[in-house]
Design goal:
Layout lengths: L1 H18 L16 E5 L6 E9 L4 E10 L2 E12 L4 E8 L6 E8 L2 E6 L2 E3 L2 E13 L2 E10 L2 E12 L2
Antiparallel strand pairs: 1-2, 1-11, 2-3, 3-4, 4-5, 5-6, 6-7, 7-9, 8-9, 9-10, 10-11
């Protein structure tokens, strides 16, 4: 009988807590089109796929990249969400090349999401990283990564992703 009471209390507590959970920010709807499998337009240096799915109660978009990046085998993982406390999108990128995550924040304007990291060290130099994701259609997007700051950005990687079949 005690076990039943404890389980019943836990269930009621969980249901009550779920009703008080904050609603999903409407800004996350901008990301809905990304769910699925994507392939980058291949060239000699870059040939990657990206699997993108919602995670953690549809609060985070999880990007899993694999393939050739600048001619080298690469894996990457990004979590992207909308941070209600900052009223900004927030992305954190991890990859098989570096031992540190890169977190950027930014805004969605029109069909473009731009996030910028705070200063990170890459190849012995400190720089900011700008990630630009441009929605071309529900079946295509571009992802560009650049380093620099202010008005001076140098493109590092450009991808044109199309929905894989």
């Amino acid at each position: 009988m005690k076990r039943f009471a404890i389980v019943s209390f836990a269930l009621l507590f969980t249901l009550a807590a779920a009703q008080d959970m904050p609603s999903r920010p409407k800004q996350l709807e901008n990301l809905d089109f990304l769910a699925g499998k994507w392939a980058a337009a291949a060239d000699k240096e870059n040939n990657t796929t990206m699997v993108i799915n919602w995670a953690l109660g549809k609060r985070y978009m999880k990007f899993e990249q694999s393939g050739k990046l600048m001619g080298v085998d690469s894996e990457g993982l990004m979590m992207l969400t909308f941070d209600e406390t900052k009223n900004k999108y927030s992305s954190t990128w991890f990859d098989s090349w570096s031992g540190h995550p890169m977190t950027g924040t930014g805004d969605w304007k029109g069909n473009v999401l731009t996030t910028i990291t705070e200063s990170v060290e890459m190849m012995g130099q400190k720089t900011n990283i700008r990630m630009t994701l441009t929605k071309k259609s529900n079946d295509a997007f571009d992802m560009d990564v650049a380093s620099g700051e202010g008005d001076k950005w140098e493109t590092m990687i450009q991808f044109k992703y199309v929905r894989a079949k």
